[in-house]
Specification:
The protein contains seven helices and no strands. By secondary structure, it is mainly alpha-helical. The longest helix has 28 residues.
């Protein structure tokens, strides 16, 4: 009976390793760009490329998307995930590009990124959103600090 906790621990570790190995191989298989190439329907193929680009955080995969609006969205999502402002510059639609700048500014909590936005009202919205994000972070830190007392 003394070994029961150890046996449970070993079993859990073995199961976790097996699960992680399975997930790794499934993700690796799904992340193969050639899987997308086999899809006949262009809309579904574009979705496949976008999913792989997000998982691999690789904007070059977005280049394979045919639909420009979906390609722009793919770049935007990868830019947010990677917190990489330069990816926003690949976007053709100015609206989507400005949205990308705003999203990256919020994620990075960087007001200076808002300056890249073209339309003033969207730029002002970006400043506000980033400031609110910083304020929320500050409130959370203060709350954690006060909770200790």
């Amino acid at each position: 009976m003394k070994n029961k906790p150890l046996l449970i621990l070993i079993t859990v570790i073995v199961l976790a390793v097996l699960a992680l190995t399975a997930v790794y191989f499934i993700q690796r298989q799904l992340s193969e760009k050639s899987v997308c190439d086999e899809i006949q329907d262009q809309t579904e193929r574009d979705k496949c490329y976008q999913n792989i680009a997000e998982v691999e955080q690789d904007p070059s995969i977005c280049d394979k998307i045919q639909n420009q609006a979906k390609k722009d969205l793919c770049y935007r999502v990868v830019a947010i995930v990677k917190q990489d402002l330069s990816i926003c510059d690949k976007i053709e639609s100015q609206w989507e590009k400005d949205s990308c700048y705003g999203d990256v500014a919020i994620v990075k909590r960087d007001l200076s990124i808002c300056d890249k936005i073209q339309e003033q009202w969207r730029k002002d919205e970006c400043y506000r959103d980033v400031a609110e994000t910083k304020e929320d972070l500050l409130r959370g830190i203060v709350s954690l600090y006060l909770d200790d007392y």
